[in-house]
Amino acid sequence: MAEVLVLVDHVDGEVKKVTYELLTAARTLGEPSAVVVGAPGTAGKVKESLASYGAAKVYVAESDDAAGYLVTPKVDALSTVAEQASPAAVLVAATSEGKEIAGRLAVRLGSGLLVDAVGVNGDGSVDQSIFGGAFSVKSKAAKGIPVISVRPGGVEAEAADGAAEEVSVSLPAVDPAKSARITGVEPVVGGDRPELTEATIVVSGGRGVGSAEKFEVVEKLADALGAAVGASRAAVDSGYYPAQFQVGQTGKTVSPQLYVALGISGAIQHRAGMQTSKTIVAVNKDAEAPIFEIADFGVVGDLFNVAPQLTEEVAKRKG
Ligand SMILES: Cc1cc2nc3c(=O)[nH]c(=O)nc-3n(C[C@H](O)[C@H](O)[C@H](O)COP(=O)(O)OP(=O)(O)OC[C@H]3O[C@@H](n4cnc5c(N)ncnc54)[C@H](O)[C@@H]3O)c2cc1C
């Protein structure tokens, strides 16, 4: 069976959920091989969890440089392994870093690039949700080893047994003149909430929330559900919530199991970032709001009346 390379997305050896989704997607095309790039000792920390999502091999590219530079070592590792293993495809998370890696890798390999896939099919085609989610299309790379970036949350992770046989990869020396070196790292100050693009549930607030103080109503529901908090651009532009939480065309793309939109009208640019969520719940006092066109469940009502009741009910059921 053909190998399918998966770049492991991790922070200091802590594997991100999207990696398991990529390993699951890879199984539709062949046998998944995980590629770990990081500081010495990283593979030891992640090997077991990669095996539990079906990684047959784990390519290990470890060095101080691998952890000390931005995308270059990852592109180097993937292109080195791809040239040796001739895989059926290379899968990378469609995060901002992942998209850059995928683009550079496709150029190096002379391959077709498939971006932001929400599904990977056995015939090598991918599903994409385009033009703000208005169209669903299938695409196939016309040449080379397809390089595919897969949207976090696009594919549901399923556990499977893999041998996780270790193969070491030696990386070429990084040319500092051509690469961006990491000079410092600061943890995101985000409290205990899950990261927006990784979260299983996202609760977002829009201009309808009315002020930064009142965003508490969104946060309380999010915390009851163990969810991440998101915001529309209008809410961000009005200063209600920080820009890093913006969902949409010019913000983050999310694809959680459940997306709750509070006081969001559902403009096409907002929908572009959340339309592929599995279940969408909207609360809006305007029955004509376009968000109801894509909502699975809608409540026409005042969010300040509905959200606290929902929060209370969720808390009761957990307790
Ligand atoms: C190039 C470009 C890029 C953009 N990128 C993005 C993007 O990334 N993300 C994004 O979100 N937008 C983006 N936008 C902006 C987008 O077009 C909309 O303006 C924005 O999404 C509107 O945000 P909103 O729904 O919060 O506000 P509004 O459209 O003002 O809607 C507020 C909603 O709240 C409802 N409401 C008010 N009070 C209550 C209440 N008490 N209870 C219940 N409901 C209530 C109203 O009925 C209304 O439907 C972009 C626009 C452009 C031109």
UniProtKB/TrEMBL annotation:
One of its GO terms (molecular function) is flavin adenine dinucleotide binding. FAD binds at residues 207, 232-233, 246-250, 263-270, 284. Keywords: Electron transport, FAD, Flavoprotein, Transport. Transmembrane segments: none annotated. Its cofactor is FAD. The keyword Zinc-finger does not apply. Binds 1 FAD per dimer. One of its GO terms (biological process) is fatty acid beta-oxidation using acyl-CoA dehydrogenase. CDD domains: ETF_alpha. The keyword Acetylation does not apply. The electron transfer flavoprotein serves as a specific electron acceptor for other dehydrogenases. It transfers the electrons to the main respiratory chain via ETF-ubiquinone oxidoreductase (ETF dehydrogenase). Belongs to the ETF alpha-subunit/FixB family. Heterodimer of an alpha and a beta subunit. This is Electron transfer flavoprotein subunit alpha. It comes from Prauserella muralis. The lineage of its organism: Bacteria, Bacillati, Actinomycetota, Actinomycetes, Pseudonocardiales.
